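Entry 12.
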Amino acid sequence: MVTARPAAGGGRWVEISPERLRGWLDGFYGRHQGADEDGLVLTGANNGDKATLHPPPGLDGVADADALLAGLAVPPRIGLLLARKGAVAAGIADGTTITASKVERFHVHGRTAAGGWSQQRYARRRDNQADAVAGKSADIAARVLLPEAGSLAALVCGGDRGMIDAILADRRLAALEGLRHPRLLEVAEPRLAVLEEAVVAARKVRVHLVP
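Predicted 3D structure (tokens):
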């Protein structure tokens, strides 16, 4: 599957499933009557259009398109950590198969329209609950992900960045923080189906096309 969206600063992002990348590259070369390659940057021969390939998590060290295709043929083992204030999901993925996972939902009070002391009380309660959720989520990450940290090529996170930061701030998870990929996936409230979708999204190759 190939999806596209505008890129900040110009051009557009295209996300390509691993099994479609070779065909997409053939199409790019065909449309541009060939291309010059500079590592992972392809420049069309007929008009200077540029395609910059961004490997998926776990393949960040590949040097060119051929190495990227070879790496995609043997998908790296990755960990996933998805979190929002109401739920967390942690999983291990070998290719597109989730081999271990845990999903937990939490009750967190919403905002109140009341003012004054009542509003402050509810705000403190929400803050305390958020801290408790981060702690429980760190427990789940430690149980599911930490024992496998040595075999993971990357940790892919998704959801609420503040929640992810709070979870990985737990000292027990230092090894996971070191594996964290900079991209944050956009995901719905975590559940098993969302975790499965995140595995597919994490494996896609992102291409920045200009123009």
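Annotation: Helices lie at 18-31, 65-73, 116-144, 161-168, 174-177, 192-202. The chain has a mean pLDDT of 91.
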